[in-house]
């Protein structure tokens, strides 16, 4: 694609940029600074790779506005290089269009409503009462159970399952192998026997949400499990019944949420973090990896450890733990000194 | 459904209750105390929600026997409100009956034996030598591999896989995406190369067992992996080869068991707990979230931490860890005082 | 199978052994020392089971060369009993041969290239441009997306998904439910909105690699995610985009790797370990369970804890943590003694 077309696309998308170089060259793919060829675009956000700017063979580099004269190759100066890189990468790698197609091996119930330009792949199952809006793409082997609704431009990965009576907004991505709307872990114990609590709630997912491979999101026990707009969820995350994820939040791989916990807006959760049930986290809270969150959090900021505390406190104590053997020896020595003084 | 029918059902199930109110009303669904309408039933087990009893619009509330005169609406006084709620919720939300049906897209081997009233959904695969007893329900895309047997009233979720030669009892639920009977992690290393140990054991699951979405339970290496009756297992749990789970135990999300570990009867395991291999846990042991269990446990009770110790001890130390920075400063101050005293 | 045939097979495979006993007996299956019958072979690697050698009913036992005269039954003395057991177990339990077969329910694109003796099971999907070499086995319901290539003798489990444009070497096992080549967690945030970074890299898997049930391995963002030869990966492991796993490494269940992290050769990773992104681990590093690895590791050895430190140091501090309540009380007592001395 000619670079001037890319620049026009950025302008259309409201990107404020300064361009330095020749906009008649071809840019056809993205690449890392170190491996890029002349028809490829790269970016720099981490100063660790600053040296590569001198040696890169990239045709175009996207840089922060402050980095004037930082490289010999054509470059774009912008406020948010990673975002602009995302836009360019999307332009160069358009999604496979969801043309109007139903593979003969797919099983689509006669009472399902399928919009325009919906792609339904091999061995897909679309059950009774399902409604799929225009532009959605269902990859091979996925199952959409009864009365579930998908908005526009959704993309469901291979072998994913969306259980019955769930609701997905527009532009929702469910990656391969994920299970949305399975029964939650609701059981009553009577004299040592477990009795299943029917899970009558649903999963309600907003717009522009992405859910990773082999994730599980349980349907609500009574009310619904809710994922608000603009959330991103990585692989193998588990959300139990009646969890609510506030808009804009990002959850990394293998994190887990017990039932009825509420995460605020614009939170970030690192890998393998665990949340107890029935707790509430305010907006703009950030959890470091492996944290175990056991109580409500009412103040924004970074948290870590188990039970999770402010990250700065955890950091201090964490250093101390690593010095604990030394500290114990110090205490022993103090005792000796005192014993001498006392005698 | 008319309330007196619900009461009759409870009596049939041996529930001892006192009912206060008018039993001619209609109750059609469950709900939370705060959102319930006049034709809905709710319950109270957590005192946190006591105030709702004054304002609830529910038609019926299920309460503990001690809560006489606690609400203005019709109510049931029982010993175990959550259990009675489960019974009523099951009555109001009957499972989809597994009528005698095989979807034309399903692939059922001619040598498979399928009982009465078995439902086999879209794109299900039932291989050679499989035996499925009456009343079982196989959701879309699930695979039952060779020579596996399912008891009565089993329910297999969409895209779940039950590998070859496994055995499920009656009333077993396997949720969507779970893999039962995959090969365990058995490898011998010779001069840096890994050689696969054939996994010749099976997975044997008792009656009334439930296994969550995207769980993995590996088949035994030589002997079998065993899940006894009346166990419940949440999403994304991993049981390695030759694990044995004692009857009545409950395992929460993302917990993991290494090979050959034995969990006793009526244990509970919270989320993200990990068990080392080849250890044995006695009956009635309860593990707090994220515990790392590295040794045999021979005494019932609650355990926490890594390595897991008695929860009460862990609690004390856990508080101390959070004060560790302070403690270290105290020790430093003591040293100064002693230095002054010594000079 | 007659024992002398087994011995001949071992000799062909270069195993140096001493055999004591009668090689005309039949050995038909493997078993544990305690349960073995006369036509079964067992082995001993753990001294815990030494007593069983006196009582075992096994027809053959595989022992370490040093264990001369340790048992009354026929035995093989070898350098690496577990490896020799693996060889014998493989001989007695040959894999189902991947004969030339495509089940009529499978969907194989006309432009896919399928080699000799490839078995394609029920409801398998093989998309456009896929190339599968001879002897590979595709179990029911698995999906091989566009332009992915499989080497010789690969085995893909039921309902597994290999996404587009990935490359698997020879003798690669992908267990049921695994997702190889899903999109990584690449997102740019602009003014609170998440923008997807197209993931244009692939997953490249070497020869003799095994990947467990419900594992997720994300495709690279720009460059590829790489798993070198001879790696073994247990269930529910997550490898993010651009991770590189060095040859010969073994990763246990529920471990997780954030993006771009490099694990060296011949490393072992225990269960539930987590790795931060963009770090590099040298060769021959061993991580204990639940470790959280946050920094580069440049020295071989065993590591544990979070943040991970040398296992020996972690062990010491870990003991101290469990004595922390006692230590804090000691410090308090010291303070009192000093106060007395000072006055």
Automatic annotation (TrEMBL), chains A, B, C:
Pathway: Bacterial outer membrane biogenesis; LPS lipid A biosynthesis. It catalyses: a UDP-3-O-[(3R)-3-hydroxyacyl]-alpha-D-glucosamine + a (3R)-hydroxyacyl-[ACP] = a UDP-2-N,3-O-bis[(3R)-3-hydroxyacyl]-alpha-D-glucosamine + holo-[ACP] + H(+). Belongs to the transferase hexapeptide repeat family. LpxD subfamily. It holds the Pfam family LpxD. Catalyzes the N-acylation of UDP-3-O-acylglucosamine using 3-hydroxyacyl-ACP as the acyl donor. Is involved in the biosynthesis of lipid A, a phosphorylated glycolipid that anchors the lipopolysaccharide to the outer membrane of the cell. The active site is at residue 241. It comes from the Bacteria. Its EC number is 2.3.1.191. This is UDP-3-O-acylglucosamine N-acyltransferase. It is an enzyme of class 2 (transferase). InterPro entries: Hexapep (IPR001451), LpxD (IPR007691), Trimer_LpxA-like_sf (IPR011004), UDP_GlcNAc_AcTrfase_non-rep (IPR020573). PANTHER family: UDP-3-O-ACYLGLUCOSAMINE N-ACYLTRANSFERASE (PTHR43378), UDP-3-O-ACYLGLUCOSAMINE N-ACYLTRANSFERASE 1, MITOCHONDRIAL-RELATED (PTHR43378:SF2). The gene is lpxD. Keywords: Acyltransferase, Lipid A biosynthesis, Lipid biosynthesis, Lipid metabolism, Repeat, Transferase. Homotrimer. HAMAP family: LpxD. Residues 25-91 form the UDP-3-O-[3-hydroxymyristoyl] glucosamine N-acyltransferase non-repeat region domain. NCBIfam families: lipid_A_lpxD, PRK00892.1.
């Amino acid at each position: 694609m000619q670079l001037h077309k890319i620049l026009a696309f950025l302008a259309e998308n409201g990107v404020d940029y300064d361009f330095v170089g020749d906009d008649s060259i071809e840019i056809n793919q993205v690449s890392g600074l170190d491996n890029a060829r002349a028809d490829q675009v790269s970016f720099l956000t981490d100063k660790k790779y600053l040296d590569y700017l001198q040696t890169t063979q990239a045709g175009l580099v996207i840089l922060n506005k402050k980095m004037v004269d930082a490289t010999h190759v054509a470059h774009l100066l912008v406020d948010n290089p990673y975002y602009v890189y995302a836009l360019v990468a999307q332009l160069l790698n358009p999604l496979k269009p969801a043309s109007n197609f139903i593979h003969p091996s797919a099983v689509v119930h006669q009472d399902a409503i399928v919009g325009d330009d919906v792609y339904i792949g091999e061995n897909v199952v679309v059950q009774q009462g399902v409604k799929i809006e225009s532009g959605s793409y269902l990859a091979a082997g996925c199952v959409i159970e009864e009365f579930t609704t998908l908005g526009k431009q959704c993309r469901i990965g291979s072998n994913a399952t969306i259980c019955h009576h769930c609701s997905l907004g527009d532009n929702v991505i469910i990656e391969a192998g994920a299970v949305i709307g399975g029964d939650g872990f609701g059981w009553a114990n009577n004299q040592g026997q477990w009795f299943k609590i029917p899970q009558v709630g649903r999963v309600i997912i907003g717009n522009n949400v992405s859910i990773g491979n082999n994730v599980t999101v349980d349907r609500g026990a009574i009310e619904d499990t809710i994922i608000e707009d603009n959330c991103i969820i990585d692989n193998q995350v588990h959300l139990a019944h009646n969890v609510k994820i506030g808009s804009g939040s990002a959850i990394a791989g293998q994190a887990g949420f017990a039932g009825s916990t509420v995460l605020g807006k614009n939170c970030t959760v690192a890998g393998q973090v665990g949340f107890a049930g029935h707790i509430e986290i305010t907006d703009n809270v950030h959890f470091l990896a492996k944290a175990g969150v056991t109580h409500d959090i009412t103040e924004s900021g970074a948290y870590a450890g188990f039970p999770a505390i402010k990250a700065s406190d955890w950091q201090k104590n964490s250093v101390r733990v690593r010095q604990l053997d030394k500290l114990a020896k110090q205490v022993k020595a103090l005792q000796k000194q005192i014993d001498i003084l006392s005698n």
